[in-house]
């Protein structure tokens, strides 16, 4: 049997590429080893963001109700069962979307046997193009006794709330898990070998650190883990105990079986690819398996689009998206969204949500929007801290990737009142037109 394209991996990158190519008339087969949906659906974004939503409501409802003159109460019931149902639904949806597009799917472990052949379920399949989309897995730290701990993927799929938890790792996953389970009632210790969230600005890091402290998380930074035994983590700063110990120490590529037979170049981050996601000739790699440090579902989707366009020889569309910046979101309360590089900007403007009418109405007023521009007045950096950052950062992503100049954004009519007005007001700040705040409020007063 021969296909135009075989995709190994049915996660976010794999199902998007498979669906696009099938819709465009390519005979496409998508192979998934276990469950469609990959890391994002089964053990990453979906269960994590579900826990964010649950804990946000549990924590914020009483506060907002009081602010609005109401009495509100939410009781924890069967949230974890609902999480499992959503994960299962979205996993099945990925498979169905490929098939709806005209592609074929198969469950099993694929083995690459040559640059034009793979073996799956005891049969050989030939192909013209191969896309490797096998994702990533938690990186196991070199700590004595690590077998006593569970991974970040396992943590977000726990079916019971532990009384206590020690989390090793101060990156996105570790910080998110710490806040989720603290708000669900666990006693949390978060251990970080350096400062938490090192790629965030100091203002963003301070906001998250303050929130963790408010939620009762015991944050210990600049700590060295010596060993784990039973429910204890032994460090240079003392012993810490938890019913559950979690390691959230980064991710590493999950390469397919037989990959060594096709001579791809790899490094510790994954398969090395060019700007079109080509690894070698007719072999492509997309998503978490590639050599990028920031592994997210939306960057995997972007990879899938780029590879698909290249396979279809859509040169004009590829030219349009060359050099696009990918946003990042931290799902804590407050949320943090970032796009672009702060070092590319030479001038900044900030507008705080506590001067935004919509935030004053709904009562969730913490955070700000920050925009950075270059010497040509182009928006090159955006940072949003606060409610709905996951949505608002997309506006700044559009502005940066469209090379919009700040004066165009400043003059753009946005709905009033809305949280997104804070973006326009930030842009207006470059021209001293951000009149929704007092001029003395640069210090957040």
The best one-word shape is globular
- How many β-strand stretches? 25
Portion of residues in beta strands equals 15-25%
- Biggest pleated-sheet summary: 8 strands, mixed
As residue ranges, the low-confidence spans are: none
The level-1 CATH class of the largest domain: Alpha Beta
Rg, alpha carbons: 23 Å
CATH superfamily of the largest domain: FAD/NAD(P)-binding domain
Q: What class do helices, strands and sheet pairing give?
A: alpha/beta
Q: Give me the CATH architecture of the largest domain, please.
A: 3-Layer(bba) Sandwich
GO molecular function: dihydrolipoyl dehydrogenase (NADH) activity; flavin adenine dinucleotide binding
Enzyme class: oxidoreductase
Protein name: NAD(P)/FAD-dependent oxidoreductase
Pfam families: Pyr_redox_2, Pyr_redox_dim
Structure keywords:
alpha/beta; FAD/NAD(P)-binding domain; single chain; globular; five-stranded parallel sheet; Pyr_OxRdtase_I_AS; 445 residues; FAD/NAD-binding_dom
Structure at a glance:
With 445 residues, this protein is α/β, with parallel strands linked by helices. The protein is built from 13 helices and 25 strands. The chain is globular, with a radius of gyration of 23 Å.
Layout of secondary structure:
Elements: E1 2-8, H1 12-23, E2 28-32, H2 38-43, H3 45-67, H4 79-100, E3 104-107, E4 111-114, E5 117-120, E6 123-132, E7 136-138, E8 150-151, H5 152-155, E9 164-168, H6 172-183, E10 187-191, H7 202-214, E11 218-220, E12 225-229, E13 232-235, E14 238-241, E15 244-247, E16 251-253, E17 266-267, E18 270-271, E19 278-280, E20 283-285, H8 297-311, H9 315-320, E21 328-330, E22 336-340, E23 347-352, H10 357-362, E24 367-373, E25 379-386, H11 389-401, H12 406-410, H13 421-428
Parallel strand pairs: 1-2, 1-6, 2-3, 6-20, 8-15, 9-10, 9-15, 10-11
Antiparallel strand pairs: 4-5, 5-6, 7-16, 12-13, 13-14, 17-18, 19-20, 21-22, 22-25, 23-24, 24-25
């Amino acid at each position: 049997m021969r296909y135009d394209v075989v995709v190994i991996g049915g996660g976010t990158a794999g199902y998007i590429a498979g669906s696009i190519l099938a819709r465009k008339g390519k005979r496409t087969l998508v192979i998934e080893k276990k469950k469609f949906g990959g890391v994002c659906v089964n053990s990453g974004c979906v269960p994590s963001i579900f826990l964010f939503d649950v804990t946000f409501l549990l924590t914020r409802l009483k506060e907002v109700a009081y602010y609005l003159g109401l009495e509100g109460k939410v009781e924890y019931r069967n949230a974890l069962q609902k999480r499992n149902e959503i994960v299962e639904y979205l996993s099945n949806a990925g498979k169905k979307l490929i098939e709806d597009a005209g592609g074929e799917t198969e469950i099993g472990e694929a083995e690459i046997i040559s640059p034009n052949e793979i073996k799956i379920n005891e049969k050989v399949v030939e192909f013209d193009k191969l896309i490797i989309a096998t994702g990533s897995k938690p990186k196991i730290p070199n700590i004595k006794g690590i077998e006593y701990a569970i991974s970040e993927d396992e943590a977000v799929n726990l079916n019971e709330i532990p009384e206590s938890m020690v989390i090793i790792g101060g990156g996105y996953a570790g910080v998110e898990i710490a806040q989720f389970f603290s708000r669900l009632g666990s006693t949390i210790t978060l251990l970080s070998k350096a400062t938490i969230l090192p790629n965030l600005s100091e203002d963003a890091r301070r906001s998250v650190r303050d929130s963790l402290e408010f939620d009762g998380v015991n944050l210990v930074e600049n700590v060295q883990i010596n060993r784990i035994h039973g429910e204890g983590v032994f460090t240079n700063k003392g012993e810490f105990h938890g019913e559950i110990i979690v390691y959230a120490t980064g991710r590493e590529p999950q390469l397919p079986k037989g990959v060594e037979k096709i001579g791809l170049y790899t490094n510790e981050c994954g398969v090395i690819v060019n700007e079109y996601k080509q690894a070698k000739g007719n072999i492509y790699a997309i998503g978490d398996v590639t050599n990028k440090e920031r592994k997210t579902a939306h960057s995997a989707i972007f990879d899938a689009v780029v590879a698909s366009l290249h396979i279809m020889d859509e040169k004009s569309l590829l030219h349009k998206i060359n050099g696009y910046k990918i946003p990042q979101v931290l799902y804590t309360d407050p949320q943090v969204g970032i796009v672009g590089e702060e070092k590319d900007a030479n001038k900044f403007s900030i507008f705080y949500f506590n001067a935004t009418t919509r935030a004053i109405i709904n009562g969730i007023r913490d955070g700000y929007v920050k925009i950075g521009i270059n010497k040509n007045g182009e928006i090159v950096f955006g940072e949003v801290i606060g409610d709905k950052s996951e949505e608002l950062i997309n506006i700044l992503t559009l502005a940066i990737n469209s090379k919009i100049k700040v004066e165009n954004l400043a003059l753009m009519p946005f709905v009033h009142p809305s949280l997104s007005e804070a973006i326009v007001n930030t842009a207006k700040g470059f021209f001293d037109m951000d009149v929704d705040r007092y001029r003395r409020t640069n210090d957040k007063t």
